[in-house]
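Two proteins were folded this term; both appear here.
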Amino acid sequence: MENISQQIKSFIETLVSFGERQGVVETSVANWIENLLKENKINFEIQKFETFIPNFLKEKLIIDNEEIDCKATCFVSGEINNNYSLVSSLISTQPLIDHENINFNPLCDSISRGNHYFAPSIAIKKSDVTKVISGKDIKGIVEVEKIKHESKNILVGNLNNPKNILVCHYDSVGPGATDNASGTAMLLSLILNNQEVLLNNLFIIGGNEELSYDYPIYWGHGYRAFEEKYFDLLESVNNIFVVDCVGDGDVTFDNNISTVRLGFPLKNLEKYINKTSLVYGSFEKLMEVYQSDIDLVEVLSEEFLGQTYVDLLEKIK
């Protein structure tokens, strides 16, 4: 098991080395996964689909003549010229999806881009919140272009009558060791070391989970593309395991629809919720690095990765 855990961690390191897995970088990662499967003589199918993603051209925030470190967290361009909407990114985007804002993650020491909006918005460090609150002259600007992107879901295993479906996504916001190089590496290790499970299981290594112009649920586009084409499989399988953000704590298999929707926002999730589990580690530790530049492999544990591997394998054998 030590060798397996080391393999998983090595895959995570490789995925993180690509940088933020969006656009052309996401495509490069998909090519790497395909080559890895080919090298190990594992058959797979590709589901290509078109989507739109944001390309951030400019992000700037000046408060009382001081430039504040920031990142764009929106799908549209515009200005933010007041501190009326200073919000925690731990709050759901949905009530604020159309409202300009400056946001921060109170649990993360870096800039966390955990929420995105269809109005001008900028993320800052929690250490700069007091500057926003006391600021008299606030000038924020973001420039974003909407670009077309061809993404792909990589489908491995039984695509006719699987007993179980295992799901992960390989794109990321930031380096994304936890979210979700961990889930991608986990599924790859399960596939490579247990090829017999491909007879009765389908593995979906999904693209374009993080950011799209789907309104108001902008995340999960790649999963919905799979749902649209393969809804019959989702209806017929015994179990669906969505592996997202593992290795930072004891593994949890969560069947609560509110939680599952955060990681698997299908159009018809209610139909499948009784058989669907979101598989994750420590939510608290995730929030400390969530979609930030400090979500690196060091925050993950080989012990927890190994535990997750064993628990998943037991459920699909």
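Next, the second protein.
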Amino acid sequence: MGLDDATTDSYLHRIGAERPDRLDVTALRNLQERHVMSIPFENVDCYCRRPLGLGQAAAHKIVHRHRGGGCYEQNSAFGLLLRSLGYSVTIMGASVYHGENLLGPLRHLVLRVDTPEPWLVDVAFGFGRDRNSRFPLRLDEPSTQPDPHGTYQLRAASNDDIDVIRDGTPLYRLERRPRTVEDFELTLWWFHTNPDSPMLQALFCLLPTETGRVALKDRTLTHIDDGAKTSVELEDEDEVRAALAKYFGISLTEIPDFGKTRHELANIIATEITSDNQVNGASAA
């Protein structure tokens, strides 16, 4: 199941792309680049205590709320867009590297797209230098693949998995088996409600530019332009909201929950989501 025609057209407009005439790798490269350069990698909803969603819910957030999201949200939504355009799309899971160690399974969601050649498509990974490529990576190519975001390599690993490496640093280990968005629902809950989740360590928002990137982490706004880095400390929540609107196109009426610790925030989110689910379940009954 994909997106309806109106949502597909709105999604393409959101990322500044046209419907492709041919479903080839040239069009796929353009679509991925437009998505990466247009949709911020961000966790603002966690700090506004809003639930996160996958697939259709994530696409609605990106298209109609003019927002971004984390890897689960963006890649699951982008997969729906590609499938709606007619591409062959397979969802796959990955374990993320923390230094030399792998974290638990399904910590990352990516796409395989066949044109018919197999391509790794990942539009949302990493806040710092170790991030996703701007263009698709050939899944069956073991040699290095240059990209504006770095030099990538897909290297064979144990159990027929694939290590995705950027500039010599492993990012994540990719499973080859197909997955569904439902497979990621439990880990999505963990990301949203566990104090150790990377989504609750700091408010963040990042968007690449042609010459670098602009990033917000809590109240620190950083610009990187041709290797030159400048950072400013924002004074209060109003300046944070102004920066989100100016640099990332995110308009908020809520004030992000900066005053809560990650443990307090995780407990509040879990309690509110559980309460909402109970109310919705009672209404359905």
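Confidence is low (pLDDT under 50) at residues 276-285. Helices lie at 5-15, 25-38, 44-47, 56-64, 71-85, 185-193, 237-248, 262-284. These notes refer to the second protein only.
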